[in-house]
Automatic annotation (TrEMBL):
Signal peptide: 1-22
Residues covered by the Solute-binding protein family 3/N-terminal domain: 33-258
Protein name listed in UniProt: Amino acid ABC transporter substrate-binding protein
Family (UniProt): Belongs to the bacterial solute-binding protein 3 family.
Keywords attached to this entry: Signal, Transport
UniProt cross-references to Gene3D superfamilies, sorted A to Z: Periplasmic binding protein-like II (3.40.190.10)
Domain of life: Bacteria
A Gene Ontology biological process term: amino acid transport
Length: 334
């Protein structure tokens, strides 16, 4: 009798386990779109344009996931999130994935029950000042006020840096808008974040510049719940597919020709002509082909939203495939 009770208890607990939830991919297929968390009003990264369409770097990654699952990049329900709700939206199952400027940390994965399946940007924390401020190095920030967003790794890094280098500066919780209004002498964030803010929120972008020092390394990636490894693997595969297509010079313009003529085994596996990667992910064989047709490869996305010919105007630098001097590296598609 005691053994029967134990078995029933084990069975009941297994039903209550987080892993007993229906898989995220099953849920997504059931409701017919992906619920993608993005930060609102952030041109270059995620914002609604004059035609009422979501545009931006992170938006394209949302659309890439939709293209992989549905062969339709428009099947995305965009959910607006902020510094705190980017985590809680996943915990409360309001979003399936969050595409945001979130730094991958071990503590965040532990505290919020989330996972970072991959990295889609390599960045570092910087500081922006007015060119006429007389601030030329970080040591010049003594007795100055620095704007920083609360509940971010940027804040904790800033506190540690000031303490380590004995810089007596005032920390003021505010975003870039407050800095451009003159509430602070400096503004700190990831360097790409600063470039986006300067391009979109400064009345005269040329009046500002970034100090040369970097305060940190910032591996930035999408976030998912930690209770669904299959879904995490799918999100990682989408990013890896964009990187591999870039490495192999498969673009939005050339993908259909590559399907017909490319003899490289990894490319054939990527595009679904050979191999079983799609089936392993729970997707159709040509899942990656639909991604590339919809949004292009990684560099096409980056250059479209952040590149030198955009208002943001940031060179790719290390955000390129390894064979062009960058840090982006996809696993073998074999």
């Amino acid at each position: 009798m005691q053994m029967l009770v134990k078995l029933l208890l084990i069975f009941t607990l297994s039903l209550l386990s987080p892993l007993s939830f229906a898989g995220t991919l099953d849920d997504v297929l059931k409701h017919g779109d992906i619920r993608c968390g993005v930060f609102p009003d952030d041109p270059g990264r995620s914002a609604i344009d004059s035609k009422g369409e979501w545009r931006g770097f992170y938006v394209d990654f949302c659309r890439a996931v939709a293209a992989a699952i549905f062969a339709d990049p428009k099947r995305v329900h965009f959910i607006e999130v902020g510094p705190q709700t980017r985590f809680s939206s996943l915990q409360e199952r309001k979003t399936d994935v969050v595409m945001y400027s979130s730094t991958w940390t071990m503590e965040r994965e532990h505290n919020y029950g989330i996972a970072f399946p991959a990295i889609y940007l390599f960045d570092g924390q910087g500081i922006m000042v007015r060119k006429n401020s007389g601030i030329n190095t970080l040591s010049d920030l003594s007795k100055k006020r620095i704007c920083v967003t609360e509940n971010t790794t940027t804040h904790t890094t800033l506190v540690q840096y000031l303490k380590t280098h004995n810089i007596d500066a005032e920390i003021f919780f505010a975003n870039g808008d407050a800095f451009f209004r003159g509430s602070c002498d400096a503004y700190t964030a990831d360097r790409l974040n600063l470039a986006v803010n300067k391009a979109n929120r400064a009345e005269d972008p040329a009046a500002y510049h970034l100090l040369p020092e970097r305060l940190s390394k910032e591996p930035i990636g999408p976030m998912v719940r930690a209770d669904d490894p299959q879904w995490a693997r799918l999100i990682r595969a989408v990013i890896d597919a964009l990187v591999l297509a870039d490495e192999k010079l498969i673009s939005q313009r050339t993908v259909d020709q590559a399907l017909l003529t490319h003899s490289d085994l990894e490319v054939q596996n990527l595009l679904g002509k050979t191999g079983t990667i799609g089936a392993q992910l729970g997707l159709r064989a040509d899942w990656a082909t639909h991604i590339i047709r919809s949004v292009g490869n990684y560099s096409e996305i980056y250059l479209r939203h952040f590149g030198p010919n955009t208002p943001v105007g940031v060179e790719q630098g290390i955000n390129q495939p390894w064979n062009r001097g960058g840090l982006l590296y996809a696993p073998l598609f074999k």
